[in-house]
Amino acid sequence: MKTAPRLVSLAPSNTEIVAALGLMEQLVGVDDWSDWPPAVDRLPRVGPDLSVDLDRVAALKPDLVLASLSVPGMEKNVAGLKDRGIPHITLDPHGLAEIWANIQLVGEACGVAERAAAAVGALQARVERVRAAAGARFGAGAGGGASGGAGLRLYWEWWPKPIYTPGRRNWLTEITEVVGCTNIFADYDVDNVRVDDGVEVVRRAPDYVLLAWTGAKRPDPAHVYRRAGWGDLEALRAGRVHAMEEGLFNRPSPRLVDGLERLWALIGAEGT
Question: Which of 97, 102, 119, 191 has the smallest CB count inside 10 Å?
Fold first, then answer.
């Protein structure tokens, strides 16, 4: 592999890994949903995640395509790349350790392994600083797992109708535990949970309702207040319903650490 390969990214999280590695000059095409860093606006688009135009990808003559399985159905992109003999690697992280490994994998494939290791080390240090702060704020055990000292119960919402929320295997459960709290649906050993009846959310009585709707720049908390029965939630009565920036929470990329720090700023300031 050349030290400066021509790259095409098929997912926003992959594009953000490229940016973290300082390889934006090598990026010659991106998917339609990539929106960070701003430099992506100058690049050719190859289609949305489930409808990538592989003819357009091939026309860009990439040395390496960064594929993804972050959305169900993207498998067909990987199959198409294989059929066409286009060099690619496929990223499918679910937690922080896998995100670190993917950054290292991309760095090695692009000839910047040392840069990748340094980037991962810096990200890990930021996570540990938040973990330590949670431990200091909430006491022994906080920041280390679902039984952390804060005792605060967080409800994350990916999508409002039908309702989707992260389960045990999702990175949002992990960052929730770093700040010493619990994801109320972490007992589901899956990536995502479809909650057909919002009554189940009410029954689990979260202390916070955190809205990170996929594709929505700024979710409207008023939507939640209109749901039948949800007005009984202490989180709603206390105003602990927060719109979270989708780009910092819904993508398995280095920017998830920015999201973690935003979450800690919220929980650390308001948590009891």
Answer: 97
